[in-house]
Amino acid sequence: MRTRIVRTLAGTLSLLALSGTVLAPSATAQDDYYSGTEGLTGDALKTKLHEIISESEQLTYDQVWEGLQATDQDPANPDNVILLYSGESRAKDANGGDVGDWNREHVWAKSHGDFGTAPGPGTDLHHLRPTDVQVNSTRDSKDFDNGGSEVDGAPGNYTDDDSFEPRDEVKGDVARMILYMAVRYEGTDGFADLEPNDQVGNGSAPYLGRISVLLEWHASDPPDAVEQNRNTVIYERFQHNRNPFIDHPEWAGEIW
Asked: Domain residues of the chain, as ranges?
């Protein structure tokens, strides 16, 4: 049976604490991680953050299954994961490619830069999320923007011929995943230089839009306890790097 989860900060913190899930690190620990960013803005800040977050482990595409079962675990039911777009709680073992399964959604669509599923951007947990197979197919490789018709199986999400709008509860999450990818992958490690731009229909170019809309989503839906906890689970258990725009939302405006 599928259920919806309504996330509130107080309730989520209580559930996470009860389940024994790792909570966000202290401010001091975060300051240590981001040492050297003090006083930087613009390209200098982006370059320093790239240097910091590029120190990371890489997963195989098979290992992503295990990663998502941990990072997106339903705090109310440890046997389930929460699906990004629909917000549904679904059994961890219902993963695969069939109708009713959940699969591995590349929020930065892997065709935008043609990086596939090789270790690196194709397996980076900071932008991979569990989604319903059919909803994932509807999103396809579209850029992000407002508008369209409501998506079957995912109320609150909208799509048209060239864009996808996620539900309000995860708009900021999506934006911060895109900003992370733009800082992490700068074309220096055998992959394309990924950059957000302000258009849709980017095709196979290493761009994804629209940055003006993504920044609006980032501001309107700030990081919550679930997103902060996810960031820490990735850091402590899997890749050992962080999404700086979850820890320091103000840096988005310093760079873009």
From this structure: 4-9+40-245
